[in-house]
């Protein structure tokens, strides 16, 4: 790779690292170039397919020049940082070269806004056309759509990509106006609405759509964030919302004061709550209400809901429906299907659940088997929560010298 291209790659890969809608990025190490195990993480990230397979992607910006001045963004126009831009041809050539060397399996392409929205979107489109038509590249491509770009350009990009996204970034118009004055929620959502409508057309391939929400940069509650996510899912605008803990990269009077660390646990709880929305048929106002506006950081959202609704519990594992089983903390979708299948042949007890590899760490407090409640903890909100947060420590029995010698002779453990 030529030196100027290499330098561009370092700049534009680093500029793309704060976008989490492509999943995890590479990790740093201290090895020197040429040493065994030495790697460079510029531009390589990992995402996962529906069947759980890990896929390596080239994650990069077309350019980090930007006419926008979003307060939270490292690429804002008022920041004094190194700037670079690929031409569509350079970007396509790098992708193909990385692909042929088995470094990557696909491309995640975003960009700052250079000149205007249509101009930037056209540059991205040219790169995609080179990849798809000149190089016959049929690999995975995820494109970040540019809000405000012409619908005709977006249509062509959608036809060539496997997934598209448009980052909402902030949960309300008020926050966008404060921190990202060039954006409105309507402007950001318009490309997703258009992409959805294209996907619904006859003989058009379905396309996955996602967005990113920054957590902790503005005063919105977890309930506000989950409500927005729920609306977007209900309108079929998105397949996935990514939550990104706010990381201070700029000084701005409208941003929170310097924080010791990003709100990563809050981000984690939002992902768990989002899972309940998508796969467990929970509604956002079941997870959080007017009295509880933020998720409990000590316990997961499903357990928190169960503790606030103990009147539904304990559930008899042999009698309740599939939907009720899904509400039991600690029992996932696969566990529910195992239980339903096994129940057709016998009445289950706690030993049967263990044989089915159903985790009872949390579930034991919310179920009965053949009418028996197995937990030694009293059935009350405070005691159950305390037991989950601080489970009793197992006693460690020190083996005697005879036990050690005997196991060494017999091979038994």
Automatic annotation (TrEMBL):
Its cofactor is [4Fe-4S] cluster. Residues 61-228 form the Radical SAM core domain. It comes from the Bacteria. SUPFAM superfamilies: Radical SAM enzymes, RuvA domain 2-like. Keywords: Iron, Iron-sulfur, Metal-binding, S-adenosyl-L-methionine. GO terms for molecular function: catalytic activity; iron-sulfur cluster binding; metal ion binding. InterPro entries: Aldolase_TIM, DNA_rSAM_put, Endo/Exo/Phosphatase_dom_1, rSAM, rSAM_sf, RuvA_2-like. Pfam families: Radical_SAM. Gene3D superfamilies: Aldolase class I (3.20.20.70). NCBIfam families: rSAM_link_UDG. This is DNA modification/repair radical SAM protein.
């Amino acid at each position: 790779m030529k030196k100027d291209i290499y330098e561009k790659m370092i700049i534009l890969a680093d500029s793309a690292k704060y976008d989490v809608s492509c999943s995890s990025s590479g990790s740093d190490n201290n090895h020197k170039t040429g040493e065994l195990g030495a790697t460079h993480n510029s531009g390589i990230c990992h995402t996962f397919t529906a069947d759980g397979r890990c896929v390596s992607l080239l994650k990069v910006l077309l350019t980090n020049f930007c006419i926008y001045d979003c307060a939270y963004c490292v690429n804002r126009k008022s920041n004094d940082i190194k700037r670079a831009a690929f031409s569509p041809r350079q970007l396509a050539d790098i992708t193909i070269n990385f692909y042929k060397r088995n470094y990557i399996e696909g491309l995640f392409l975003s960009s700052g806004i250079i000149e205007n929205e249509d101009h930037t979107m056209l540059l991205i489109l040219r790169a995609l056309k080179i990849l798809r038509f000149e190089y016959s590249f049929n690999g995975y491509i995820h494109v970040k759509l540019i809000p405000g770009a012409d619908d005709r350009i977006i249509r062509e990009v959608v036809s060539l990509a496997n997934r598209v996204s448009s980052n909402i970034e902030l949960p309300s118009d008020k926050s966008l106006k404060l921190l990202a004055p060039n954006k409105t929620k309507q402007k950001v959502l318009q490309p997703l609405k258009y992409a959805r409508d294209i996907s619904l057309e006859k003989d058009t391939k379905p396309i996955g759509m996602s967005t990113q929400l920054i957590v902790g940069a503005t005063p919105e509650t977890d309930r506000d964030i989950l409500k927005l996510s729920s609306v977007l899912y209900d309108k079929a605008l998105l397949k996935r919302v990514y939550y990104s803990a706010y990381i201070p990269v700029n000084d701005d009077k409208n941003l929170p004061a310097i924080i010791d660390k990003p709100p990563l646990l809050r981000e984690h709880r939002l992902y768990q709550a989002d899972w309940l929305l998508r796969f467990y048929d929970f509604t956002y106002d079941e997870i959080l209400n007017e009295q509880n506006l933020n998720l409990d950081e000590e316990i997961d959202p499903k357990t928190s809901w169960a503790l606030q609704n103990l009147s539904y519990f304990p559930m008899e594992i042999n009698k309740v429906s599939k939907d009720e089983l899904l509400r039991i903390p600690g029992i996932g979708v696969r566990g529910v299907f195992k239980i339903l299948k096994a129940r057709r042949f016998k009445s289950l007890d706690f030993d049967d659940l263990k044989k089915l590899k159903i985790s009872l760490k949390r579930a034991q407090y919310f179920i009965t088997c053949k009418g028996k409640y197995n937990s030694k903890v009293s059935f009350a909100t405070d005691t159950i929560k305390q037991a989950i947060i601080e489970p009793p420590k197992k006693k460690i029995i020190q083996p005697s010298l005879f036990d050690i010698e005997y196991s060494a002779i017999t091979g038994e453990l």
